[in-house]
Amino acid sequence: GGGRGMRVVESAGELVPSLRQARSEAMAAFGSAVVFLEKYLSKVRHIEVQVLGDLAGNVVHLHERDCSVQRRHQKVVEIAPAPNLDDGVRQRLFDDTLKLARAVGYHNAGTFEYLVADDRHYFIEVNPRLQVEHTVTEQVTGIDLVQAQIRVEQGFELASPEVGIYSQSAVRPRGFAIQCRITTEDPANDFLPDTGTILAYRAPGGFGLRLDGGDGLAGTKVQGHYDSLLVKCITFGPTLAHAAQKGLRALREFRIRGVKT
After folding, report:
1. What mean pLDDT is predicted for residues 9-19?
2. What is the pTM assigned to this prediction?
3. 71, 72, 120, 129: which one is catalytic?
């Protein structure tokens, strides 16, 4: 959960104390001290594949996202589709994702996550839900994932007019989308969560920009009981450079006072 409890063990002597620390943190955070031992990969990309399956056994992938920009194992910036990803690796990710999804009879929206090192990919986990970064997939595919998951759970098949995904080949990404997470954290204090009352809030606007979660936030009290995510800033354009340029402009135009962001 959010990278909590993870430890890198460089030698056998570090195993027992690292295991003890990981178990203690996991128990405190999640009420379970179960841990997994996995091979450590130092130079990787975090690539995930969005899927959607119906109750009739039909499954499609909605292409991939690059979630490699992270802090403390938590995602900060997400991009769809993944730039500069080898086409062979991309196809193998799709093939294995669909194979896994069909093997378990997966339905509803979900994300299959992988680490990619060179030309090899390593399975991490499945998130059987929508994720914070589902927005970038929506922008490049034109598919409303929130609506689609509700429709399939009502019994509509993917190829029905209610969902409108008639074939895998019909799902084609157009352009690029980038999501930046605006969090109430203090960059001058090791990005620790900040609390207080939002005194002023002004958000950017314009074509190619989507904001999830932020409007009329002035006067809102930010407390320490919840996740520090305040608003998601999603920009999209015909090329990665266009999406990035819009994202940088949007971030400069934000005005948030009263809490550190």
Report:
1. 95
2. 0.90
3. 129
